[in-house]
Amino acid sequence: MLPWLSSPHPKFPTTNMALSSPNGLLAAGGELSPTWLVEAYRRGIFPWYSDDDPILWWSPDPRMILLPEQFKQRRSLTKRLRHGGFHITLDQHFDQVIQACAAPRGADAGTWITDEMHEAYCLLHTLGIAHSIEVHQGGQLVGGLYGLAMGPVFFGESMFSRAPDASKVALAHLARAMREHGGKLIDCQMHTPHLASLGAITVARTTFINYLNNWLPDEAFTLPLSAEEAPMIPASPWLSAIAVEGTPY
Fold this sequence. Notes:
Layout: E1 4-5, E2 25-29, H1 34-42, E3 46-47, E4 56-58, E5 63-66, H2 75-83, E6 86-90, H3 94-102, H4 115-126, E7 130-137, E8 140-150, E9 153-161, H5 166-180, E10 185-189, H6 193-197, E11 201-203, H7 205-215
Organism: marine sediment metagenome
Keywords: Acyltransferase, Cytoplasm, Transferase
Main location: cytoplasm
């Protein structure tokens, strides 16, 4: 039976209790407050559900990750980075990025970014925990990505493109900033061929959890008892390397 989380404070089952089918489903219930979300991500758990479901928590095995030094930048992307007329910003249009990521794509009219999820991640952004990387071209927002930054780890959530390779441009800038300024790992959650083509790999869930235990130790966090208070998380100084608009690649 799937555990139902009803405690006023986040307390998740151990990730080895997650189901194998559907892969990684761990628990249901709980909240999308900052404290719950921070506790989930640092334990290798993330929410994913549709409007008709309760909050569902996942920790798939294997886990897709991207080590910044393993990002595959093909010559065509290098050319686009240098000559595509892109400008990169950090945290200037978070709400627009998450709205673009939530928009239906192709024949798929649904989205897993529910209104409740949207509101929760915008609050994390206000608290300095969730961040967006925006790609501009010709004065227009044409791509980007968003996720959570905790210490040397970036937990990627979603990305979008309105111009060729625009999401790859955002990821390239993220990978470079982390590679050059102490970042260690980009969590990609689930395997996709697109991310694999960019250098992401799958690792056992136990390996992923060991990475988090090493780089995000318990003593680096302070989780408040009140839902209104902001969690204290380890700083991510590599973010400042993305924050200069128009920095050439």
